[in-house]
Amino acid sequence: MNRLSKNYGWASGIGLITILTISIIAKIPTQEQITDQVATEKLPQITSKVRNLEVTKVTVRAQGKHSPYVTLELKNKSELPVIAFIVTFGRKSISEDGGLLSDNPNVAIAPHETIKLYISLSDLNQDTPLVVSGAFYADGTEDGEDAALRELHEQRKYEREKHAKQKNEAPKP
C-alpha cells in the first residue's frame, strides 16, 4: 500500500464521520422547537358563552419563530350585527367596540360573517380557558357572562368620559 492510499483512507474515514455527526446533530430538535411544540400541544380550552358567536377555527401561526401566535376565527351566527364583543383569558382580554363614541355604531362582526383575532401564544395558559365572554348587538340586546358585559359597559363609560373631556379641552377657533 503506498502513502497516497493511506492518506486517502484516513481522509475518507474522517469525511464519513463528519457527515454522520452533522446528520445526527441536524435531527436533534433545538430547545426553541421543543418549547413551541409543547406550547401548541397545550392550548387552553376554548369556549363561547355567547349563543350566536362561535369559534370556528383555531390555528397556531409562526410556530418555531420568535413570537408564535394563535389565530382565532369567530363567526356571528345571528341575523343581527355585533357592535361590541369581549374575549377573556384569565386577567387578560381582547375587545372591540364599534359603537363606543357614535350614535351610529360601526359593525364589529356582520351577520353570518367571520373575523380573525390574533393572540400571542405566550399570553395563553393551558389551565386558563379562553372564553368568548360577551357581545352587544346593534338592536341594543346583549348576551354573555354578567362580569364580561359589566366590563364592556365600564370600558364604554371610561372611553366616553375621556372623549368628552378631550372634546371640552380642545381649543376653540
What does this structure look like?
The protein has 3 helices and 8 strands. The chain is globular, with a radius of gyration of 27 Å. It has one domain. The longest helix is centred in the N-terminal third of the chain and has 25 residues.
Q: Which SSEs are present, and which pair or pack?
A:
Blueprint: H1 3-27, H2 31-41, E1 46-48, E2 53-61, E3 69-76, E4 82-89, E5 92-97, E6 114-120, E7 130-137, E8 142-144, H3 146-169
Parallel strand pairs: 1-7
Antiparallel strand pairs: 2-3, 3-6, 4-5, 4-7, 7-8
Approximate shape = globular
Mean pLDDT over the full residue set: 79
Q: Termini distance?
A: 101 Å
Number of helices: 3
Structural class: alpha+beta
Give the % helix.
25-40%
- Number of separate domains: 1
What are its keywords?
173 residues, alpha+beta, five-stranded mixed sheet, three-stranded antiparallel sheet, 35% helix, globular
Give a short overview.
With 173 residues, the chain is α+β, with helices and mostly antiparallel strands. The chain has one domain.
